[in-house]
Amino acid sequence: MAALPADTLFLPVRELGERLRRREVTSVQLTELALDRLSTIGKDLNAVATLTPELARAQAKRADDERKHGKDRGPLHGIPYGAKDLLDTKGIRTTWGARPFEKRVPDADATVVARLEAAGAVLCAKLSMAELAGGLGYHRGNASLQGPMRNPWNRERWAGGSSSGTGAAIGAGLVPFGIGTETWGSILCPSNFCGVTGLRPTYGRVSRHGAMALSWTLDKIGPMGRTLDDTRLVLDAIAGPDPLDAASANAKLDWRGVTRGNLKGLRAAHVVSDFAKNGEPETAKAYDAALATLRAAGLDIVEAKLPDLPYEATAIVALQAEVIEAFGGLYTSGDVRKLVDERAPIQAELAKAITASDYVHAQRLRLQAQRAMNDFFKDYDLIVSAGFLKIAPGVTEDMDTYFSGADPVGGMGNLTGVPMVALPMGAGKMGMPVGFQLVAPAFDEALLVRVGNEFQRRTKWHLERPATA
Amino acid sequence: MSRSKDETALSRRRFLGGLAAAAAAPPLIALGRAEAATARKKAAPAKPAAKPAAAGPDYSVAKTPEERTALERQWKQTIDTLESLRKVAVPVGAEFATGALAPLKLRRGEA
Q1: Counted domains in chain B
Q2: Residue B31 falls within a domain, yes or no?
Q3: Which of A28, A108, A160, A331 has the maximal Cβ count within 10 Å?
């Protein structure tokens, strides 16, 4: 069989799967292409923490052999992918993006990794990430064991974080899908900045067993890919209860109706962002066009304000208390000084201000926020809002200076655990990708997929490719 | 509520990572309205307990002037965040929550 075109891995998972079933391509071919691109372009972007060629070749051969014998494990069978380097992989280094853990080798697979293997997917690389997924803070795009996290659209810009390598690898067409994690923004941010599609599921939808814990009450795992339809396929494979994660939920995914294109009858709350104060006009223009596309599809979009609650402050207190419990050992050992971010050493001092009562109070406020949002969703099926109002910052730029503006939708979404998606919506300043987000009630990922699918059917932004890749 | 540039930048920074480190001071909300939004409560809200102010950080952990400056600034923001959050009452008997809360019924386009 002839070598595959270099851009083959930009194709959606669903299409690659069809080509595999038609025997137009083999998993071994796709895997060799992915390994080649990850080891060249991926290294250049600092998107790769560890290549996994032996495992990948074995999994690809198994997929091809099974297919020859009539066994089909489903839409991911034989498809290459990459996983954020905080998901444990048996016998394969898993560094959490941080120097103190650079030699860490787990002895078992994370549940997500095991489920993807069962679905026939081929793990080609562990992908880079911001150190400790940003748990002890970072304010530049170079805060990673793997070095500056570069954007495939412009190597001098940041890929976003903390699932940086996952965003960059999909954006550069190195793998067709990947797994990211989010405590607050870590799937949606790199998706927006790298021009890829991210699905941040409901808290509890995907088992975190074998994933680095940053915040037990906020951490979530989710798929990133070229299309929202692809992320749905991946979510199907990784979701579901797991006795090894006490927070995993029993709720079933129900995809009925997701292919219904007409959005008439659905009402979206539009939470408005202040582009004039904090944004860039190019991004505002792309967002206006995205809203127009959704309206043309029949979606009723109404300006609305979120219930007036301290989402961000509440989430910050919960997060700050939990993260010091998770990484307190780094302060005891002094290893916190091995991290790239120079402000990490002071974070434990800040957490000392939080009392046990503060932490419990925050978790009680969380329930108030969840109830308020469930009331809110009696009037609106979903929420639409802009993602970042500006393009990705420079890779070594100080984010504290670059970004301004609050994140009420992200704060609410992560505090209450509701699902969100990030969708590419066009080109911002310098031709860099920009995106927007949709939010649904807890466990209603299907609605996000229905609305997002229709948006992507009407636009091609999610299929754009960076010239440099 | 207006926010200083520094505060909002920090808030955004948290969004970027997973973010635990420095505490931003997000807009604190009118407490009564918060309660109104959770309309189910029947009991009067509990009066928030007064909390002692924290003594202060151990500045010896800051090894450089930049770390010292960052610690001073972020400590103040942390205290501001905590003090404002402590003023937000929750209904008597309100439970502790962690994960997601599924709605009883999805709207699905119902008027």
Answers
A1: 1
A2: yes
A3: A160
Give long-range contacts, CB 8 A cutoff, 24+ apart: B34-39.
B34/A307, B34/A308, B34/A309, B34/A310, B34/A368, B34/A372, B34/B88, B34/B89, B35/A368, B35/B89, B35/B91, B37/A307, B37/A308, B37/A309, B37/A368, B37/A372, B37/A375, B38/A368, B38/A371, B38/A372, B38/A375, B38/B91, B39/A375
The proportion of chain A whose per-residue pLDDT surpasses 90, expressed as a percent, equals 94
Yes or no, beta carbons of A312 and B103 under 8 Å apart: no
Considering only CB atoms, which chain A residues are within 8 Å of B26? 310-313, 316, 406, 411
φ, ψ (nearest 5 deg) of residue A316: -65, -45
Give pLDDT, residue A452: 98
Does some domain include residue B109? no
Report the complex ipTM: 0.85
Mean pLDDT to the nearest integer, A396-409: 88
Question: Where in the sequence is the domain holding B35, given as residue range(s)?
Answer: 5-86
Q: Determine, yes or no, domain membership for B46.
A: yes
- B90 part of contact set with chain A, CB < 8 Å: yes
Q: Where are the alpha helices (DSSP H) in A239-280?
A: 275-278
Interface-testing mutation among A162, A208, A309, with chain B (most B C-beta atoms within 10 A): A309
Contacts of B13 in chain A (CB under 8 A): 137, 139, 399-400, 403
Within a domain: B37: yes
Size of the A and B interface in Cβ pairs below 8 Å: 298
Nearest to A101 by CA among A136, A148, A151, A52: A136
Q: What is the CATH number of the domain that holds A76?
A: 3.90.1300.10
B19 chain-A contacts, CB cut-off 8 A: 134-135, 137, 183-185, 316, 319
**Domain with A42 in it:** 1-469
Residue A52 DSSP one-character state: -
Active site (annotated) includes residue A162 = yes
Total residues found in chain B within this entry = 111
Q: Please list the pLDDT of chain B residue by residue as tens digits (111 residues).
A: 334 444 444 444 444 444 333 333 333 333 334 434 444 444 455 655 555 556 889 999 999 998 899 999 999 999 999 999 999 999 988 888 888 888 877 777 654
Domain total of chain A: 1
Nearest to A469 by CA among A60, A47, A141: A47
Residue A130 contacts residue A140 (beta carbons within 8 Å): no
